[in-house]
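The record is passed on directly below:
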Amino acid sequence: MTPEIRPSAIAGVNPVAKLAVALVISCALMLSIDWVSAAVALALEAVLLAWCGLSARQFWLRTAPVWIAVPFAVLTTVLYGQDSGAVLFSAGFVSVTEGSVALALAIGLRILAIGIPGIVLLATTDPTDLGDGLAQVLRLPARFVLGALAGLRLVGMFIDDWQSLALARRARGVGDGGGLRGRARRFGGLAFALLVLSVRRGSKLATAMEARGFGSDEPRTWARESVFGVRDTLVVLIGAAIAAAAISAAVLAGTWRFVLA
């Protein structure tokens, strides 16, 4: 069972405001690949994590994919990134220079600065509230919103399905081989079984929703009102301030390089 999120200041914010914050920060950090802007944004985001409502265990578990991806991205860029500056190490077709190290640092910090707030904001958002916000605040088509909401609801079931499939296969004695090859075969079998189960469930859900009139083009009413208020505007302004502070710090430090320049 997924642990509950503690009530927090950010949990009650309109999901549209959270989405806007994530987009603003992401777009600002994508304008340049330098370590200063990413470091400043990450530091400011870290200060605000105290109000996200996630426990330490929940935070590390939910952001684990980002922390796992960062070392691989950094190492790949250090070894095979664009060479510039003094050569620090060279062996065959692999070379490490001051420029590739700086680029790797900038990319690693950028992945953290973009990925962590996105995951945290998503973790503190109720899917139904997100659907209400997309339909009532952004005025997106109801059919698209309801389909996305249904799919988002099913994402949380993947872990339970994976565990159930693993227990069922173990009870039947399937995929119990040891070693790396056995684990790879077991992972592949579970992944394929989960794919088949997801397709079947999605087909049944689509048929059920169509039968209940969710695919109709008639105007739809919503049970809960989604309001974009002063607090939501303040959250968006905070996100814009973080983006502006990151860009300003990079410009003042002389590291800002527009990606299209």
User: Anything to note?
Assistant: Residues 86 and 97 are 6 Å apart (CA to CA). Strands lie at 87-91, 94-97. The longest strand covers residues 87-91. The two ends are 49 Å apart (CA to CA).
